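Predict the holo structure. Ligand: zinc ion.
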Amino acid sequence: MSEMRKMTWDELAHENTTQKIEIGNLKYWVNDLHLGMYINCVYCGHRYGPDKDVPASMADVLKKHIEKCPKHPLYEANQEIEQLKKEKEWLLNYCLFLEYHPFPIVRNEEVEINILHQMQQSLKDQ
Ligand SMILES: [Zn+2]
């Protein structure tokens, strides 16, 4: 039996609280270490410095920058996720159209492939 299974709910709750306090203390420590220092984005080199009036911690400022930095892989991943969401919506709409279209549609593989290519092209144009 593992160590985790021997713990009661109260013990787990106490351990969870203790760890949350430790994480909070470590965040304060990191913020103190960043205080008065320059922080750079390693992908584009954008610099935030102590001379700027920054209301949040430097780590939070850098996190916000990373979300919008065009050279950071996370930005590219977010762009791809948005594109895939659009494509999924188009495909779901296309499936609904095929399923509920009131007129009989002559199923033609070549025509359907052409429609899918047109949809793909219009997604690229967006
Ligand atoms: Zn950057």
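The chain has a mean pLDDT of 82. Residues 73-100 form the longest helix (28 residues).
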